[in-house]
Predict the 3D structure of the following.
Amino acid sequence: MTSALRSSARPSLRRLPDSGPDLGNSLKETPMVRLLVLLELIARKDAPFTLQNLVQDTQWPKPSLHRMLAQLEASGLLQRDLKGRHYSTGQRLTRLAENVLLNSTTRAARHRVLRLLVDQAGESCNLTSFSAGEVLYLDRVETAAPLRFYLHSGSRVPAHCSATGKLFLSQMTPSQRQKLWDAGPLERFTDRTLVDIDRLDEEIAKVRGQGFAIDDEEFLPGLLCIGVLVPSLDTKDNKTNMGIALQAPKVRFSLERAMQCLPLLENAAQALSRINQSASNDEDELL
């Protein structure tokens, strides 16, 4: 690490807004900790950012931040746009985040919540997050019913035609969603897939207002899915990157039946939120 990062004139490692626990004076001189704090701040950003943005957020010396960003970019944790001014998370950092979610120490506790929901509702359920514009399956519990659709942990599905995907999209600003739409035409998977942007925006607004979402044969023919977000207690804007959904063949899981299961789904989401909050509190105590 460079001598600039070892300088005794560096500012204190102050607590960043909503960035996690204060790491304390005993750790503030450690260059590795400074990199981790910077990554933690970057992970909370929902749009590309500049070096000057980080200078304003951290009040750290601009040359030091520039060198830290260069290290993170060289390692694949960050990437820059074509003009070279804006940074965003790199593929390596995205994979790291996905692996943490897929193999979290709270996975067993969360899996028990999914198992209970399947026992109560009688249908398969999955736990998801939003990653690189798609819905990532973090965990899944299958029903014992012989007729079912199989999707394993680690599977990815498009956001625009999945229940929790539409919920994740509903948390984004119109400009953030537009960047996704500009990436290319939306793929039509069935006759019911929404690919018209105006109609999809109307659906997303409806989802935001009602607090749940339905996938009615929009991704796979004959499949109906209902989903809700897992509430986050750690962010001021209540944005979350975790959703839970029930899905089953329409021959036995009608829209009416799905709505009957909504309270069970919401109870499971609250239980998952408490697990996440408990894990966060435990980490704070360790620090």
The longest strand covers residues 124-131. Confidence is low (pLDDT under 50) at residues 1-27, 283-287. The chain has ten helices and eight strands.
